[in-house]
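Q: What would this chain look like folded?
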Amino acid sequence: MKKPITPFAHGLLDYTTAATVAAAPAVLGMSERPARVCFALAGGYTLLSLLTDYPLSVRDAVPFKMHGAVEGAIGAALPMLPWALRISGETRSRNFIIGLAALTGVVAALTDWDKQSETTARRQHRRMPRIKASA
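A: My prediction, written as structure tokens:
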């Protein structure tokens, strides 16, 4: 099965997710502790995205497949986070973090982790014949 999320699209989703997680405390009215958790997660997502070997990064220090493994580990840990950090009593914060875990799992499952797919797609796009307008 061909997976629909390319490395470029995954990068867009990563930066959007980081911005959403950073904005969540203000939007959802979270208290200080879950807000700190969100800011730490947003910072981690942003740093990982900036350093991943994909089109929207600043430096290609983290291989794309390693990025996927790190995201998988984060996604697996997120559902336990509200209880581990004793913020499970704050319903909005808890549900947001669990929803973030679900989103992370869906994006990971739909991402084509083969970095070469992006290069191949670009190469095929360049080979497509140009349609000339008739005069």
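Residues 7-28 form the longest helix (22 residues).
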